[in-house]
Amino acid sequence: MDLKDQVALVTGAAQGIGLATAKQLLKNGAKGVTICDIDSTKGEAAIEVVNKEFGKGKAIFIKTDVTRQDNLEEAFRRTKDTFKTIDIVINNAGIIDDEHWEKELDVNVRGVVRGTKLAMEYMGKDKGGKGGTVVNIASVAGLGLRSASAIYDGSKCFVVGYSQAMAFAPLSDSHGVRILIMCPGLTDTPIADGVLGGYEKLSINRQSILSKASMQSPDVVGEAIIHILREGETGSVWVSDREKAPYEVKFPEFVKSF
Questions:
Q1: How far apart are CA 65 and CA 21, in angstroms?
Q2: Tell me: the pLDDT tens digits for 16-35?
Q3: Percent of the chain at pLDDT above 90?
């Protein structure tokens, strides 16, 4: 995929992996990026930094709560109105909060479904669109690496399974939108603090966990997302971990009906 002149919408993009990805998209030739986030203060600060670095008008900020369908619809509509197209949707927004698991699932599960379905409405060939790419951000927790936050882990398993199902050939042939899945390892974001906090509640020392895991920069994951946008086939699942080059996960082959 050539990123030149592409337009992207990124959720959860006021900081961390989302912001790093937005910057990488513009660095690699994207025409415009919409930064969506529930935090207006951080969102406005992010847009100021991004437009200063890449040029005024290259990015817009839209306050977006992914648990609200009307918020997401408005973000897609305004992106299309501003940049005249949408080519890439990155469903990155996520939280870790097993104590308030209903909200956690609404963000991590329903938010991804809402974002993917709207991407299909705007980009799907069966809806009159020209196709495009969706990147759904999961986690290595979605591949079997368990943490002390069971509901968070389960939500990321859903993201992997749902995204692969959306890339299932009969569906994919109809909508014509490429679906990619990125599974970051422990990354220096608020979610990492939540993961480590879950262990501390079980009286497991934070340093004990960090001695077995390497914290990586969000910029590394942003670069990895650019790589899979260029190289990834629909339905492919990728890992970015320990600041190493991203790699594709290979799953067992089952009998295919189609």
A1: 19
A2: 999 999 999 999 999 999 99
A3: 84
Q: State the CB neighbour count (10 A cutoff) for residue 173.
A: 11
- Nearest partner of 9 among 101, 123, 100, judged by Cα: 123
Question: Active-site residue 122, yes or no?
Answer: no
Amino acid at position 188, single letter: D
Q: Give dist(CA 46, CA 74) in Å, integer.
A: 20
For residues 241 and 40, give the distance between their C-alpha atoms in angstroms, rounded to a whole number: 30
Are 53 and 23 spatial neighbours (Cβ–Cβ below 8 Å)? yes
For residue 199, give the 3-state DSSP assignment.
helix
139 φ/ψ angles, rounded to the nearest 5 degrees: -175, 160
The tokens describing 26, both together, are 């513009």
- Please tell me the total number of residues recorded for the chain in this structure: 258
Q: What's the chain's Rg over C-alpha atoms?
A: 17
Please name the residues in contact with 49: beta carbons below 8 A apart, sequence gap of 6 or more: none
Question: Tell me, what DSSP letter sits at residue 106?
Answer: I
Which residue type, as a one-letter code, is found at position 101? W
Alpha-carbon span 145 to 176, nearest angstrom: 31
Beta bridge partners, 178, equal: 133
Query: pLDDT tens-digit profile of 113-135?
Result: 999 999 999 999 999 999 999 99
CA-to-CA distance for 67 and 12, rounded, in angstroms? 12
Distance CA 91, CA 137 (A): 6
- The DSSP 8-state label assigned to residue 205 in this structure reads -
Of 122, 152, 162, 247, the catalytic one is 152
